[in-house]
Design goal:
Chains: A mainly alpha, B mainly alpha, C mainly alpha
CATH class of one domain in chain A: Mainly Alpha
Mean pLDDT of chain C: 82
Strand order of the largest sheet of chain C: 1-2
Membrane topology (chain B): Multi-pass membrane protein
Structural class of chain C: mainly alpha
Largest interface: B-C, 69 and 99 residues
Largest sheet of chain A: none
Mean pLDDT of chain A: 74
Order of helices and strands of chain A: HHHHHHHH
Organism (chain B): Microtetraspora malaysiensis
Largest sheet of chain C: 2 strands, antiparallel
Number of strands of chain A: 0
Radius of gyration of chain A: 25 Å
Number of helices of chain C: 14
Low-confidence stretches of chain C: none
Structural class of chain A: mainly alpha
Shape of chain C: globular
Subunit structure (chain B): NDH-1 is composed of 14 different subunits. Subunits NuoA, H, J, K, L, M, N constitute the membrane sector of the complex.
CATH topology of one domain in chain A: Four Helix Bundle (Hemerythrin (Met), subunit A)
Distance between the termini of chain C: 67 Å
EC number (chain B): 7.1.1.-
Shape of chain A: globular
Low-confidence stretches of chain A: 181-224
Oligomer: heterotrimer
Strand content of chain A: under 5%
Catalytic activity (chain B): a quinone + NADH + 5 H(+)(in) = a quinol + NAD(+) + 4 H(+)(out)
Distance between the termini of chain A: 65 Å
Radius of gyration of chain C: 27 Å
Chain lengths: 224, 119, 453
């Protein structure tokens, strides 16, 4: 970081490309929230992430740029797409994509953006750093993560642990509410047993998940 | 940045070729309209407008994608670690062992909860 | 450039634009021709393995068979089913094809040569994070599969797309992990430098003949290489992991609705280009890259000029022949076996091997605390084994429970053959046990025990 002010005009090619990428990112982000087709929204999100990766590239953060592609484009949006495909994603436009909180959401978004922009401008308005090719390569990054930022790195492993366990707990079907009747809003019929004690040996005819889902559905119907 | 110019050139070539092939396809072949031909293929029965099972796929796919994200992140950290290993030495090894062991705890939990089983 | 080890990162980024265009066009044309003749080669080779002739009508040795097939594809009717999501349906073939080509941009084919007076490496470009680019392209290719499946709006396609993408991402993890040991050994992610690191090892003196020790990572990092060789089959959806094309259950998988025409050709193209890409990565990372192996490398000029391109090509043909060989030999695995193998075997093995290799590497640092490292290693090994045994007993118990359950069902079926509502034939008719019916008891006709009858 230096505080020496570089020449801002005329803009260099890098600055122009960076600005253009920013416009692409912003535009595609807007399309994500305005398009009425779910899968197209996910695809616009890919464009947005791609533009961000391009931005990192221009800033010579090569490793981060490819990680952006690999993790966000290659993994997270794929997860989103799986989620869309697993539900009844209708083809074409779907109504009811807007929640009733548009005003609140817009306010929160604008507020967050305002806070971020203010902080960045206040904090780094006079700080400049030269762009050196190769500064964001794996070796430099590795040395800095595993020497200076050890604690965040180790904390991340705990975060990953929590994420995985959360995913499993959410998708487990053998954990049910202690009192299914409370969910269904009525007293449980005393004659129907809530559910088999523990489906340890899975039914031979289908996956554990399917059997569990139908099971819980039946239970709540009986309860109501 | 100069390193990326050739990639861009190849990308333009490949994308141009693929887009050309896909867009030329309707014009190179004959056109013999037939209603059944334009139905989605379902072994000759009337196609259902919704995906199989009314859109209820096994949750397993979601869990696989989650696992994929977590392990992808782990790989992403392994790469700079591997490259910088010579300068990190023993300290780096201990760090990575701690990291991998923590993630493996989650992995073991998933395994125990049959998250890795497809049946 | 170092004449003995070939180009490194500093040699890149100096090409004028026209040279980049020439190289890019060259790679593109080679890959297209590679697909055309790769298909022919595969069909021909697998035919010979199965005592058939294979294509032998179009052109000499049937060489033009793929050209004829490609032309035929272009002249077929282009069907776009009514129900598809048009944008996604048309986008998918493009998305699957482009990244397949892009991954080849960091593949090193040879050392520095002079093209029209410009000194340049025989490689389109190289990045400090080149291998990451290959992985990123593989993960973008998944979109082609998911979108083709979803956009088609057909149950087979959507199920095939889901399955196939889940398979590809699973094997991508194992693949990414198998690279880590290479990076540990080479200390870089750049493909040209990884090739340079595999340039030389020590030498053995055998009867006055100097045989260089193999410096390929395939040998020094054998576990990584074996795991990579398996994952490259899974990543490209090839036999024995070609589940997406399980015709019996999924028709054509994610490309069911791309029934004919050039759109299907894109999927075909992408599949073969992907095979070439993973083969190229195998060569670059594990098989010494473009460098000639030992007996050839005695000749001084083997690793200079344009020759290395020939070595690379020969290696590529051999790796591709390996794909064909596997296809001719192995049956398709079941989906649960596929996923279990990827997640429960390849990934833990890979992680254990990485830690083991890193420990060995740390031991080699002279001033390191050997006792501490050994203790750490012992704890890891014991802990890993303990967890594995625990799982093993747990799984064994589950397996026994399942077997008992199946046995129970069989018992029930034996008691009443019509259990379950389906008329089943009696399970132990005499001829099941090799007993011939009374009329055929004579040995006039010899029984054919195998083969066709």
């Amino acid at each position: 970081m230096t505080s020496q002010v570089p020449d801002l005009w005329p803009p260099s090619a890098q600055e122009v490309v960076f600005l253009l990428l920013g416009v692409v990112a912003l535009g595609s982000a807007l399309l994500v929230v305005t398009t009425r087709q779910l899968v197209h929204a996910a695809l616009w999100l890919v464009v947005c992430f791609g533009a961000l990766a391009g931005g990192y590239l221009v800033l010579t953060a090569e490793f981060v740029a490819w990680v952006q592609v690999l993790i966000y484009v290659g993994a997270i949006v794929v997860l989103l797409l799986f989620g869309i495909m697993l539900t009844r994603a209708p083809i074409g436009r779907s109504a009811g994509l807007d929640s009733g909180n548009r005003v609140t959401a817009a306010t929160v978004a604008v507020g967050t953006a305002a806070v971020l922009v203010t902080v960045v401008v206040q904090g780094f308005a006079t700080a400049y750093t030269p762009l050196e090719p190769g500064g964001g390569a794996a070796a430099t990054l590795g040395a800095s993560i595993f020497r200076s930022w050890v604690l965040p790195f180790e904390a991340l492993s705990v975060l990953l642990l929590a994420a995985l366990i959360g995913a499993i707990v959410l998708s487990r079907t053998d954990i049910r509410p202690a009192n299914p009747a409370a969910d269904a809003g009525g007293p449980a019929a005393p004659t129907t047993p809530p559910h088999p004690p523990d489906p340890a040996p899975p039914p031979a005819d289908g996956s554990g998940a399917t059997a569990g889902e139908t099971g819980s559905g039946r239970v709540s119907r009986d309860g109501g | 940045m100069e390193l990326y110019v050739p990639i861009l050139v190849l990308a333009v070539l490949a994308a141009g070729f693929a887009a050309f092939s896909v867009s030329i396809a309707p014009f190179t072949g004959p056109k013999r309209w037939n209603r059944a031909k334009l139905d989605a293929y379902e072994c000759g029965i009337e196609p259902t407008p919704q995906p199989v099972g009314g859109g209820r796929f096994p949750l397993k796919y979601m869990i696989t994608a989650m696992l994929f994200i977590v392990f992808d992140i782990e790989i992403i950290f392994l790469y700079p670690w591997a490259v910088a290993f010579d300068s990190l030495g023993l300290f780096g090894l201990v760090e990575m062992v701690l990291f991998i062991v923590t993630v493996l705890v989650a992995y073991a939990y998933v395994w125990r909860r049959r998250g890795l089983d497809w049946d | 450039m170092n004449p003995t080890t070939g180009p490194t990162l500093v040699d890149f980024g100096h090409d004028p634009l026209w040279l980049s265009i020439i190289k890019a066009v060259f790679i593109f044309v080679v890959l297209m021709l590679g697909v055309l003749f790769g298909v022919w080669f595969e069909r021909k080779l697998i035919s010979r393995m199965q005592h058939r002739y294979g294509p032998n009508r179009a052109g000499k040795f049937g060489l033009l068979q793929s050209v004829a097939d490609g032309l035929k594809m272009g002249l077929k009717e282009d069907i776009m089913p009514r129900t598809v999501d048009k944008v996604v349906y048309l986008l998918a073939p493009v998305i699957i094809a482009v990244p397949a080509f892009l991954a080849f941009s960091v593949m090193p084919f040879g050392p520095m040569v002079s093209i029209f007076g410009v000194e340049t490496p025989l490689q389109l470009t190289d990045l400090p994070v080149a291998v990451l680019l290959v992985l990123a392209m593989a993960s973008i290719g998944v979109y082609g599969i998911v979108l083709a499946g979803w956009g088609s709006r057909s149950p087979y396609a959507i199920l095939g797309g889901l399955r196939s993408s889940a398979q590809v991402v699973s094997y991508e993890i194992a693949m990414g992990l198998s690279f880590v040991a290479v990076f540990l050994a080479a200390g870089t992610l750049s493909t040209s430098e990884i090739v340079a690191k595999q340039a030389g090892g020590g030498t053995w003196d055998v009867f006055g003949l100097e045989i260089p020790q193999p410096s390929w990572y395939a040998i020094s990092l054998l576990p990584s290489f074996l795991i990579y060789a398996i994952t490259m089959l899974g990543e490209t959806n090839r036999v024995p992991f070609d589940l997406p094309e399980g015709e019996g259950e999924l028709v054509g998988g994610f490309h069911t609705e791309y029934s004919s025409s050039l759109k299907f050709a894109m999927f075909m193209l992408a599949e073969y280009v992907n095979v070439f890409t993973v083969s190229g990565v195998a060569i670059t990372l594990f098989l010494g890259g473009w460098r000639a192996p030992w007996p050839i490398s005695i000749w001084e000029g083997a690793n200079t000029g344009w020759w290395p391109m020939l070595w690379f090509f020969i290696k590529l043909v051999l790796v591709f022949a390996f794909f064909v060989w596997v296809r001719a030999s192995l049956p398709r695995v079941r989906y649960d076996q596929l996923m279990a193998f990827g997640w429960k075997v390849l990934i833990p093995l890979n992680l254990a091997w990485i830690l083991l290799y890193a420990t060995l590497k740390a031991l080699r640092v002279p001033e390191s605390n050997k006792a501490f490292i050994l203790t750490l290693g012992a704890i890891i090994v014991v802990g890993g084994l303990a967890i594995w045994f625990r799982f093993d007993t747990l799984l064994q118990r589950r397996r026994e429970a399942k077997a008992a359950q199946i046995e129970e069902e069989f018992e029930q079926l034996r008691e009443e053959p019509e259990a379950g509502g389906f008329p089943v034939p009696p399970l132990d008719l005499p001829h099941y046990h090799g007993v011939l019916p009374a009329g055929q008891a004579s040995t006039a006709v010899k029984e054919v025990t195998s083969g066709s009858n």
